[in-house]
Amino acid sequence: QVQLVEYGGGLVQAGGSLRLSCSVSGPPGTVYTMGWFRQAPGKAREFVSAMNWSDGNTYYSDSVRGRFTISRDSAKTTMFLHVNSPKPEDTAVYYCAAGKFVLESRIHQPSEYESWGQGTQVTVSS
């Protein structure tokens, strides 16, 4: 079982920057895809970004491409989401997720991921 813990959320001004982190622990070979999702009040959980944990390929939603960057440390124990030029509509609880058998065509689907962190609030002020 993979354990995920997010941290780094908070209040940020529009146009500023913030870095979210997700620590990853668990048995080797149980993670093949890592993702970031977010959920605003009254809305469904939404795909933000993902990374193939093996080869480092990255994926982004259209709404954050060019503003957010997903990365990881060299030990593959921490995933990051660099939130640049945030907008008020980026306000949400951000979750990291891990999946073992995530099809590339379904990488944006929350149901593809087996493990989830507890979430961290990001609030963007205008």
In a nutshell, what does this entry contain?
The protein is mainly β and 126 residues long.
What do you see in this structure?
By secondary structure, this protein is mainly beta. It is 0% helix and 50% strand. The chain contains no helices and 11 strands. Strands 2, 4, 5, 6, 9, 10 and 11 form a 7-stranded mixed beta sheet that branches. A 4-stranded antiparallel beta sheet has the order 1-3-8-7, with no helix packed on it. Strand 4 (33-39) and strand 5 form a beta hairpin. The protein starts with a strand and ends with a strand.
What's the structural blueprint in terms of helices and strands?
Blueprint: E1 3-7, E2 10-13, E3 17-25, E4 33-39, E5 46-52, E6 58-60, E7 68-72, E8 78-84, E9 92-99, E10 115-116, E11 120-125
Parallel strand pairs: 2-11
Antiparallel strand pairs: 1-3, 3-8, 4-5, 4-9, 5-6, 7-8, 9-10, 9-11
> Which structural class best describes the helix and strand composition?
mainly beta
Low-confidence stretches: none
Separation of termini? 40 Å
Question: Largest beta sheet, briefly?
Answer: 7 strands, mixed
